[in-house]
Specification:
Blueprint (H helix, E strand, L loop, with lengths): L9 H4 L3 H8 L8 H8 L14 E4 L20 H12 L7 E2 L7 H4 L5 H9 L5 H8 L11 H20 L5 E4 L21 H11 L5 E5 L6 H6 L6 E8 L26 E6 L6 H19 L3 E6 L16 H11 L7 E5 L5 H15 L15 H14 L55 H17 L7 E6 L20 H12 L7 E2 L7 H4 L5 H8 L6 H11 L10 H20 L3 E6 L21 H13 L4 E5 L6 H6 L6 E8 L26 E6 L6 H19 L3 E6 L16 H11 L7 E5 L5 H15 L14 H14 L37 E4 L7 E4 L11 E6 L5 E4 L2 E4 L4 E6 L2 H14 L9 H12 L28 E4 L23 E4 L2 E5 L17 E4 L4 E5 L3 H9 L4 H5 L18 H10 L2
Parallel strand pairs: 1-2, 1-3, 3-8, 4-5, 4-7, 5-6, 7-8, 9-10, 9-11, 11-16, 12-13, 12-15, 13-14, 15-16
Antiparallel strand pairs: 17-21, 18-22, 19-22, 20-21, 23-26, 24-25, 25-27
Helix pairs in contact: 4-13, 8-9, 11-12, 11-14, 11-23, 12-13, 16-25, 20-21, 23-24, 23-26, 24-25, 27-28, 28-31
Main location: nucleus
Pfam families: Hist_deacetyl
GO cellular component, one term: histone deacetylase complex
């Protein structure tokens, strides 16, 4: 489904007169001066989210020629490729993909992860005789080769790498490499488990070589991918996440290292995640629990730049090896949630899967999800098994010292025990014999070592799979998203206070932003209408509706007093208020109808006045009719929808929606709202977590009441992964309605929270996994015009199939963890999906872990060593494998024959081992001499001198002690307009003493935040043209600082006094005060002296020497 408007549909092009007016005259007629001013000052502060480009597909017939010549029944056979491809053709998926031409991996690419001997042996197998191949294969566990193995393996690896590169270069959004032989068991110098070359590991290493810094590898093949684990075990650039059958080590490959306590080593400790499945017949519910409770929280904190999936289907129902019960639609859901990461850059590579029927369907639904089709409905999840709960608690136990996303788990006291007994112990299980280098056989069997199902069992599973296929509805609506808006809703306005936050410009600004981003051209425009009286009476009583009717005939003075006299708090009235309220409710009903009649997959209602505070007999909180409640009743009564989920992320509790459905089990109401212990509007105690519904509706009301800190993306997504999505999947709604208030957004004058447009986009994307994608957003609150327009545009973009914008690494605050924990403890009594919420034993971060049990690990990614500072003579060179004895206090220049990367913190120099290092100690005179040499070598023009040399010479003059080092190659995101190739490379300086005012950067950059934006030197302060990053300088006071010169252009700010600069540099006041919070605080821009960029700034200082 392309998401484009269907020009052949008359109904799609037809709108009511009011809707036409809304499109043509959105900012005209009775717009107030204030509103007009607000609209004309609108600007696009952020680029639109990345648009879906296309899905790549790898398939080559040569890979079907690889087969076992001595065993025609061998499970790893060509049907594993031909049948999935055939099923994708049947569903019309192949023609929608971008075919990737076959590419052979080069020797250099293979040698990044495999030995030369391994590569040469693979190539030699082509010329071997039948007997020689059999003899060769007996040396390896479960591996065969034939005339085509080398070619198939080289193409499988090379094309997987090519697909990954196409994704990184934005030629594709995502892709599926249907390749064989598989790869995730292949080790540095060993064939293993049907695998020749490690396709995914080679692709990951190629990405690293291109400068990608964070790669997530998700491996859900039923066998542990020990090959990938070993190749990246100490590398923090790769987060490896494996879900595999283990049975305490009794399942192949029977390794100790496949258990949960193997979490990496050295700098990679905490970056290897094993999820061992210790029983068979795990279900969709078990896997969904893993995704929600472990995978997504880790992924959001890690913030990958690309996701690689080792996509095995041997956990699927009917597979004789896995013996699990994962349904094909479940793979589509897992892929969907991964697509929210890394701007949708997901590269899928086929691994295992040996039940051809379930493998084929799983591949097809995986590809369908990559193509942005809605997730098929799956049955309601059930209680996860005790076994998987135990595994999750064990994982949290060992990972919590390294990851902050698990901070909501409470720790056991020394005298307490976890109710899941295995959590109190450490592996391994007594009596289990693991494979080791000592007990491995001299020769492996060539055939007969794999499980074989009886004909009866095969028939049973074939029937089961066919029933699943028949029950899985793959229908897609005519368009991805519909939209409604009517400019007549501007008529409701406060003529007594033009500054009232609920003003007409709210919907106009949203409409203009959606137009600017081109989203309306891709949407079905739904005509507006007024709600019928009978429809309103599903929620509101007659007396209330009649009472509002009289306002149409009131004069202005009577309208001013009406809300107070009627007992309607926080309301203003206008003669057109009732008509606008009827128009808002009716227009939302039209959107619901468009979605439930398959005219559109999802919908957006840009309407006002809002509705979630309007009680059945009373207006309040800017609301007249409860639009979302009327819409829910409309869906039930007209279309027979049995289960409706209402998610309310407005910053205020939707009191009226809660009251309306408090006893109704057919509507699950979930609200995230600012509570502050009942002191935030509407100020009712029934907004607390303890109010869960009553009677038959008990448990169907979920309040997530925030208290304390300023909540943002990290906190809201924590609530989604830990509470909302688990409960929603167990509820299994047929329709999702979102009370989309954006007053929790950054910059809102009423909410005071900090959720970003990207954060709302991610929440929307998660909800799209439910109800076959039938998600409808209706506007509630939100009073910062710029923010609400970007928020609604970001959500609409995602509904249209665009990718989620990137988020920073998410770390939730402590008060949010307290709230989430409180809600979980209450709701676990009603939702079995939350049974894992238990206390865990405390584990220290320096937990010593055993080493690998098989062959020694190949040396990969060298751990960095630390050089302590001391006195050393000038211009010395030393080559050593252990450089910990090299010391210096005054390093200003570092070069290396091995591409050394270096940094200096806490009076220490850190660099890679086994490096030949030249270092020099330069005094001030020698630095000037070096600068002179630099200028002479470049015709005395500092502008033409290499950046590295200039900054190296500059370092000793700017700071007490400093050094410069070449940055490692960094991948540039082609979709990020702020990540520019042509910009100067960032340079890092360190000083040994606290930084003085005027002589250094005002504050340092946190590694997880955007580039630093203030630099002070002399009596001038330079500020990045891009918005400053708010960082409290007090946290860096009185300690050594790391200072980053960022790429964005800088402007000069003239200082008014010395004391002002000193205050900025060393103050402990609020971060917003430090940065000034806006252009007004930055003073006058320096005209001719303004440097074009950081390098010009440095060159200006060089000239002064």
């Amino acid at each position: 489904m392309s998401g484009k408007k269907n020009d052949d549909s008359k109904e799609e092009r037809t709108t009511s007169d009011s809707a036409k007016k809304s499109y043509d005259s959105s900012g005209s007629d009775n717009e107030s001066d204030e509103d007009t001013f607000s609209l004309t000052t609108l600007e696009i502060r952020e680029p639109a989210p990345p648009v879906y480009i296309g899905t790549g597909l790898v398939y080559d017939e040569i890979m079907t020629m690889h087969k076992c010549d001595w065993d025609p029944d061998f499970p790893e056979n060509p049907l594993r490729l031909t049948e999935p491809y055939k099923r994708c053709c049947e569903l019309g998926l192949i023609e929608r993909c971008e075919r990737i031409e076959s590419k052979r991996a080069t020797d250099e690419e293979i040698l990044t992860k495999h030995t030369k001997e391994h590569l040469e042996l693979t190539a030699k197998s082509v010329s071997m005789s039948y007997e020689e191949r059999m003899e060769l294969c007996q040396n390896y566990d479960a591996w065969y080769c034939n005339d085509y193995t080398y070619d198939a393996s080289i193409i499988a690896a090379g094309t997987t790498i090519q697909q990954m590169n196409d994704i990184l270069e934005s030629n594709l959004t995502n892709g599926f490499a249907m390749v064989r032989p598989p790869g995730h068991h292949a080790m540095e110098s060993e064939f293993n488990g049907y695998c020749t070359f490690n396709n995914v590991a080679l692709a990951a290493q190629d990405a690293i070589n291109k400068g990608v810094e964070r790669i997530l590898i998700v491996d859900w093949d039923v066998h542990h991918g020990q090959g990938i684990q070993r190749l990246f075990y100490n590398d923090p650039r790769v987060l490896y996440f494996s879900i595999h059958r283990y049975e305490y080590g009794k399942f192949w490959p029977e390794l100790r290292e496949s258990d949960y306590d193997y979490i990496g080593e050295g700098p990679g400790k905490g970056f290897n995640i094993n999820v061992p499945l210790n029983k068979i017949e795990m279900t969709d519910s078990d896997y969904m629990t893993i995704v929600q409770q472990i995978l997504l929280p880790l992924a959001y904190e890690f913030s990958p730049q690309i996701v690689l999936v080792s996509c095995g289907f041997d956990s699927a129902v009917g597979d004789e090896k896995g013996e699990m019960l994962i349904t094909p639609p479940m793979y589509a859901h897992m892929i969907h949630h991964l697509l929210a990461l890394a701007k949708g850059r997901v590269c899928v590579a086929l691994e295992g899967g040996y039940c051809i029927k379930s493998l084929s369907e799983g591949c097809a639904l995986t590809l369908r999800s990559l193509l942005q089709d809605p997730c098929p409905l799956i049955p309601a999840t059930v209680e996860p098994s005790d076994s998987i709960v135990t595994t999750i608690l064990n994982l949290v136990k060992v990972l919590s010292p390294y990851w902050k996303c698990f901070k909501h788990y409470k720790k056991l006291e020394s005298f307490e025990k976890c109710v899941f007994k295995e959590v109190n112990n450490s592996p391994p299980l007594e009596g289990v014999v693991f494979q080791t280098s000592e007990n491995r056989p001299e020769k492996y069997k060539l055939t007969g070592f794999y499980p074989v199902q009886t004909d009866e069992v095969k028939r049973k599973f074939q029937c089961m799979i066919e029933n699943i296929i028949d029950q899985t509805k793959l229908g897609v609506a005519a368009t991805r998203c519909c939209y409604t808006f009517d400019a007549q809703m501007k008529g409701h306005k406060n003529t007594f206070s033009l500054s009232h936050p609920e003003r007409p410009a709210r919907i106009i600004s949203i409409h203009k932003k959606l137009t600017q981003w081109g989203l309306l051209d891709r949407s079905l425009i739904v005509p507006s209408r007024i709600a019928k009286r009978s429809e309103l009476l599903w929620i509101h009583n007659e007396q209330y509706v009649d009472k509002l009717k009289v306002t149409e005939l009131m004069d202005d003075e009577s309208l001013r007093d009406f809300p107070h006299e009627a007992g309607y708090p926080s309301i203003y009235c206008h003669q057109k208020s009732l008509y606008c309220a009827l128009l808002a409710a009716g227009s939302l009903l039209n959107v619901v109808e468009a979605v439930l009649t398959n005219q559109a997959q999802s919908g957006v209602a840009n309407i006002r006045p809002p509705g979630h505070h309007a009680e059945y007999n009373k207006a309040m909180g800017f609301c007249f009719f409860n639009n979302v409640a009327v819409a829910a009743k409309f869906a039930q009564k007209k279309f027979g929808v049995k289960r409706i989920l209402i998610v309310d992320w407005d910053v205020h509790h939707g009191n009226a929606t809660q009251h309306q459905f408090y006893r109704d089990p057919s509507v699950l109401y979930i609200s995230l709202h600012r509570f502050d212990n009942g002191h935030f509007f509407p100020g009712h105690q029934d907004a607390s977590a303890t109010f869960v519904g009553s009677g038959p509706g008990e448990g169907y009301n979920v309040n997530i009441p925030w208290c304390g800190n300023k909540m943002g993306d990290a906190e809201y997504l924590m609530a989604f992964t830990q509470i909302i999505m688990p409960i929603a999947y167990q509820f299994a709604p047929e329709l999702v309605l979102v009370s989309a208030g954006f007053d929790s957004a950054v910059g809102d004058p009423l909410g005071g929270y900090a959720v970003t447009p990207a954060g709302y986009a991610h929440m929307t994307h998660m909800l799209m996994g439910l109800a076959n994608g039938r998600v409808i957003l209706t506007l509630e609150g939100g009073y910062n015009l710029k923010t609400i327009s970007e928020c609604m545009a970001a959500c609409t973009s995602v509904l249209l199939g665009d990718q989620c914008p990137a988020l920073k690494k998410l770390v939730p605050c402590d008060s949010a963890a307290i709230t989430v924990n409180e809600v979980l403890l209450i709701q676990k009594n009603y939702w079995s999906c939350l049974k894992f919420k238990e206390k865990i034993p405390k584990v220290e971060a320096d937990l010593r872990l055993p080493t690998f049990s098989l062959a020694p690990k190949p040396k990969q990614y060298d751990p960095r060593k630390t050089i302590s500072c001391g006195n050393i003579k000038s211009s010395q060179t030393k080559t050593t494998s252990d450089i910990s004895d090299i010391t210096t206090t005054d390093i200003t220049d570092i070069t290396s024959t091995s591409g050394l990367t270096a940094s200096k913190t806490d009076s220490a120099l850190t660099c890679s081992s086994d490096a030949r290092i030249t270092y020099s100690s330069l005094s001030l005179p020698s630095a000037k001499e070096k600068l002179k040499d630099v200028n002479q070598s470049h015709n005395d023009e500092p502008e033409s001198a290499p950046e590295q040399e200039i900054i190296s010479a500059m370092g000793n003059l700017s700071l007490d002690t400093a050094f410069s080092a070449s940055q490692p190659k960094r991948w540039v995101d082609p979709d990020d307009p702020y990540d520019r190739v042509s910009d100067p490379v960032k340079k890092i300086f360190s000083c040994q003493k606290p930084i003085e005012p005027y002589r250094s950067v005002v504050y340092a950059n946190d590694p997880g935040s955007p580039p630093l934006s203030r630099f002070a030197t002399g009596h001038d302060e330079y500020v990045a043209i891009d918005e400053p990053v708010a960082v409290d300088s007090s946290q860096y006071k009185d300690r050594e600082e790391t200072i980053e010169f960022p790429a964005p252009p800088f402007r000069r700010v003239t200082r008014s006094s010395t004391s002002e600069a000193a205050t900025v540099a060393g103050s402990s006041r609020d971060a917003n005060q430090v940065t000034g919070g806006g252009d007004e605080s930055l003073g006058a821009w320096g005209g001719s002296s303004r440097p074009a960029n950081v390098l010009d700034l440095v060159r200006t200082q060089v000239r002064s020497l």
